[in-house]
Design brief:
Layout (H helix, E strand, L loop, with lengths): L4 E2 L4 H7 L2 E3 L9 E2 L4 E7 L5 E8 L1 E6 L5 E7 L1 E3 L9 H6 L1 E6 L1 E6 L6 E6 L6 E10 L3 E10 L2 H6 L3 E3 L1 E2 L4 H6 L2 H6 L9 E8 L4
Parallel strand pairs: 2-5, 5-13, 8-13
Antiparallel strand pairs: 1-3, 1-10, 4-5, 6-7, 9-12, 10-11, 11-16, 12-13, 12-15, 13-14
């Protein structure tokens, strides 16, 4: 599952790449995005035009302690393809799909307590898009989650059994504005080449 990804482009660059309107002048987000932090998202705007904005990564999951006391909500940052028809995701999947620009995503590898970051990206593509869904919430404001599916090829063999739903540019419009049935057909493993970069950087920031 994806709990860290990298996005190194500016808002203006993303707006140009996705033929979108820049709706977040002076947006603040990091190059490495973690659950609960803001990330750049491309969502539908007026008259079908794409709009670039920042949202918090993760839908809020309300938590309670042993005695029923409210706890800090947990950001649910991954939406499994086979769960999109469930109550937690259904409304967003049917009505509020988005594109998540990224330059690479990371998976943790190695022994417990010594896991390092392995970065995955698409060759010859500085920026690409993962499928996402979004909603408004009382806890996190406007937030998004990344849709996940099974891995394929080298990613499945050597890194992780699941990966983000990656979208080809010609499918951006269909994901954003197509019917739920059409969008569901796009939720499949990426069969193209994937670049895998093994690093010695600790998974957990010190």
């Amino acid at each position: 599952m994806c709990n860290l990804y990298r996005m190194t482009k500016t808002v203006d660059e993303i707006a140009a790449l996705f033929d979108a309107v820049d709706a977040v002048k002076g947006a603040n987000f990091g190059e490495e995005i973690y659950p609960g932090y803001p990330g750049l998202v491309v969502a539908g705007g007026a008259e079908g035009q794409f709009k670039v904005g920042t949202m918090s990564w993760g839908f809020p999951l309300v938590m309670k302690g042993k005695n029923g006391q409210p706890l800090k909500p947990k950001p649910v940052n991954n939406a499994r393809t086979d769960k999109l028809d469930g109550f937690f995701w259904r409304s967003s999947f049917e009505r509020r799909r988005c594109l998540i620009p990224l330059t690479a995503w990371a998976e943790a590898q190695g022994a417990k307590g010594a896991k390092t970051r392995t970065w995955l990206s698409l060759p010859n593509a500085e920026t690409f898009a993962a499928a996402g869904v979004w909603r408004k919430s009382d806890e996190f404001g406007t937030c998004y989650s990344m849709v996940m599916t099974d891995s394929a090829g080298s990613a499945a063999e050597s890194v992780h059994s699941r990966m983000p739903v990656l979208l080809a540019p010609e499918d951006y419009g269909l994901w954003m504005a197509g019917s739920p049935e059409e969008a569901k057909r796009l939720c499949k493993p990426w069969i193209g080449d994937i670049t895998i970069e093994v690093s010695d950087h600790p998974w957990v920031r010190r």
